[in-house]
Design a protein that fits this description.
This protein folds into 5 domains: 282 residues, Beta-galactosidase, Chain A, domain 5, CATH 2.70.98.60; 341 residues, TIM Barrel (Alpha-Beta Barrel), CATH 3.20.20; 102 residues, Immunoglobulin-like, CATH 2.60.40; 86 residues, Carboxypeptidase-like, regulatory domain (Immunoglobulin-like, Sandwich); 35 residues, no CATH class. It is 16% helix and 37% strand. Strand 23, helix 7 and strand 24 form a beta-alpha-beta unit.
Length: 893
Amino acid sequence: MYRKRLPIFICLLLLSMVECACLNNQDVICIENRFITVEFDADNGHIVTLRNNICGLNLISTETLMDADRVPWLLSIKSKEHKLPQIKHFFYTLFHETENTIAEMKWETDLDIIVEARIILPKNDPNVYFYVNVTNYGSEEIIDITYPFIAGIKYLGNTSQDDHLVYPLATGYLIHDPYHLFATNEGFNKLYPEGFSGASMQFMSYYSDGDGGFYLAAHDPYGTAKYLNFYRSSNNPYLICSFTHKAWDIHPGNSLILGYPIVIGALFEGNWYEAAERYREWATRQFWCSKGPLWKRVEEGTAARWLIEDVGFCTFGIVSNLHDVSKWLEAFHNIAGLPVFHVLGHDWAEGWAGVDPPDRSVKFNKANIDAIKRNGDYFALFGFDLFTRNVSARISPSGQFPYGCPASSYMRNVHREWNMHVLNQSGADGRYYDIGASNAPVYCDNVGHGHPIGAGRWMIEAYRELMNEAKQAMIKLKGQYVPQGTEVIHELFIDILDFYQMRAGAGPQTDMEGEFLLSWELNHCCEKIPLFNYVYHEYGPIAMDGFAKISREFGDIFYWIAARVALWGDLLELNYEFSSLEMYPGMTGPSGYLKYHYQWAEDPNPPKADPKKLEFIREIAKARTDFAKNYLAYGMMTRPPKIETPIPKISLSYYHYNDIHGADHFRSGRFEVPAIVTSAWLYKKEKLGILFVNLQEKPISISFKIDPASYGFSPEETYRYTYVARGIWKTLKRGRGEVTLQIDLPPRRVILIEVAKDTPVYGSVQGVVRDMDNKGIDKVQVRLTGSNNCETTVTGPDGYFIIDRVPAGVYNITFEKEGYVNQTIYCLIVKPNETTCTNVTMPDVKNVLSINTTGTVKSASLENEGLRLVISVFEKPDGILEIVMKRDIIADP
């Protein structure tokens, strides 16, 4: 191998013309601006320096590399005779083009293959853009190229314990101290796009706490399959970072022209938010976000409002056919009195939930479907939409599962017909695809399907077309929008899918995709972060996460799991794939669950539902569907303010007994977490919502600062800071600039602090007052009383009343008329720019029935829905009578 350089006098001439390019010596090619410096070895073009100039951080911190790592790129070819082409000649040039410094490099190999790189450094940009092309003048078959290849990474900060790796495995993890954590041949070499065991997005970040770091990303809008690599190889005393780009059209003499950059950038803050925001700025301008944010799609009718706004939580894997579980479906609905989304189990298919034949029988237990419909709940059917019995239509080479190739005409036809038939026979509200496109193979070499040999690009487009054709056919059949979901997610299907299932958010209770990092997570060597939601939540789809159970045995870890899932904008999932339905109060007899495959497993001693956990589900469901809906359903995630009060750690119990592998993988213990879960959201960039949950069983006071300008708001405006919770709406403060807030967090309640312009906000209250015969009562005195004002009116002849321009807040509303029993509704929330409807029935005093009872009042609480009394009325210590006087008992909405 030898090199060819420009003559020295030409190099010097170029350097005198280009401010940002330099040759420090004859052995280094250097490009730099005030943000970042990149140096290449002048002998073969491999990267020797990547320096963050602002923060004084070096990504490459060793010059002692193994010979195998002193390479600019790695090229894989199909020929067994050649594993790595030998570089015959190397050329480079440096020049200036408008506001960019550009280094062009060219490598000629012994296989008639030329590799060319173009590295662009804009003058005022913290990012360097690496482009690479492989041109094949011979007959070899190119499989992939790895570029750039960055070896010699150690730690950034004063100690490696300050360093963290952001990686998009599943939907995002933060790895602590990877330099010491990764053993030999350990780290990440994950395939993109792949949501189960691969990468859901195309970026990583390596940073030191508070000191800055590096952004490492592919800005690829084409769906190219690639590996995101960050690992320790052999016995190296350093780490390696690289990107491996897979060919999508492999044939003798094929070239590989990528057409997109790998972006290496300087980060200045030393946190994961900065990298996510930089990626979001690029990613949300790509085709997979082109349909716009969810709120816009709901208004246009191209998204399911009920799924996004109305559903409080979801279940997964409950039997659909083999057993009557209607009493459990009723119990789930009654937890919060809100719609529940059920992804029902696969037993409707009677032995095979794949796509063929598409018109086979679909069977349900009628009591189950009736219970769902009666309660106003929703359901989707679990199925394997890519599994086929047609061997010729399968992906080649075949793997663990019988995947059909999405580009084959057979799969295109049968997939659409199967979806329409199942939807028509079941009346389902949506479709769920397990082991589906989000974690399916992205390579096929069967050219009989009408596609080239290769990975990514054409295959991703084929999956998109397959699902979209089925969706459009189902929408036409049903006459309304039909949401689709898959197991796990990656970014290229954001505009196609509406929901997805995850388990990684369950922490110590995780399963499947969360198991890859479980041992690290249990030892606090890594943590799940809401990386995918931070980038994409505003665009959807919605995650079903938590893998939760509601038994006491599950442990107090439930509250941490449920709080994180809810405050990260996801739906809490109660999972029944591998363990029994819990018994609710009053239930008798055995329980059970649907086993894989197609068996009802009866459990004579099932666990009982924990009332405290049910109450917390009710709490987060109300937050999602009511006072925090704008943020949790439609918001763009942003950085929460730093809590200045020291936050205690709490140790939570867990027992993991719901596992795909069975009892051999059951585990238990305690897990330490911060006592407060928090998140922050922007709604249409008009309002800021900050959410808190105190996981302790005692209240805690916290203080924090908010500067609206740091969230993109005008510093000249006056802002109102409002404390909102279930049944509470009060103004804390008004002011300009940075403010300090001190608030109390009650135990296990969702608290919202809303920041908005301090403009007068009004709502209205209207309704109808009726007698016991459902006739309107006229001349009823209606009095609306708040902390600072009182509004009155009287009903008309039909019992109708309205009170306009009511300042937003919490009120009591009283109805009085002689001859009737007076009625009062407490904690009526009047929301800004909304009409609150409350209809009331007033009994005639002659028809009032008095009931006397005796007992000891054990507890009483005034809640958003009404008055809850728990009265001891039996001789046994645990015998109680619980009376819930809900608002809908005295008010007829």
